[in-house]
Amino acid sequence: MSGNVYTILDTRDGEFPQVNLEALAVGRLIAEKSGKDLISLFFSDNPSAHLDKFAGRGVKKVHLFASPELGKFNLEHLGKLTINKIGQENDSIVVLPANIHGKELGGYLAAGLGAGYVTDCTGISEEGGKIVYKRPAYSGKVIQKLAASAGAALVVGFRPNSFPVPEADATGAPETVAETVSTEPAKAVIVEVKKPEGAALDVTEAKIIISGGRGLQEGANFSLLEELVALIGQGATVGASRMAVDAGWRDHQAQVGQTGKVVSPELYVACGISGAIQHLVGMSSSKCIVAINKDPEANIFKVADFGIVGDIFQVVPAICEEMKRVKV
Whole-model pTM? Predict the structure, then answer.
């Protein structure tokens, strides 16, 4: 049976996250290049509350999987339901974000479907009649180009914030199909999710990241970055280097780098971060990088689009004051 392009979507705390719209945009791009239909599998405790999000996104059909158990991410439930739904198709392409849950689910689906797996995809093109998926490799030093064999199934994990999300067009609402959900007790379930106090937008999904490192000297000084993020508003969050996390200044969920999270924001501001290769791996694909460091020889300036050589305890407050003046 010939396959389709599938986007795997779910809700988070009852909300429809921005990364779902990115998944639909990436799925539509692949569907148009491959000549396949775009189908969505939507898992939620209340999927009907978000059906308006699919209109004008090029989706032909949405399969609704509704169950209280699907209100929280569960690898077994999502994986088995997805494989049961599309497992008979020979050349299906499954699209999902390469975030923490997406990477876990992507590997599960690739194994279950006997499919190839491309993760951290940041670009898609058409070359020699094949769809080519691009991803950073070797700590971001090279860009790999990967293509699936003819007729092979593929799982594609895209890096959040790497693809634009166009405005909805006039294609209208897709057909919806309510699926019967039968979920056996999973071997492991999420009982409770505890977020660190003051936790904000996840760094993998933020459009703007103000990140701090050793130059902040102590955890209390991250308040400078928090003030700047508050002035920027929606779409911004605070990140941290590994050193700052290891020192206990910030929670691990904010860590950017090889042993933390890989991010691709529109703007990345590195405050007091020297630019070790392990950190650069996690943020070098940012659209615009601004470095603030008093050491003019800091490695971070080699990858920065704009650099400010200065004391962050003077520069960041000055930026905050200017933003307050402009906002008045």
Answer: 0.84
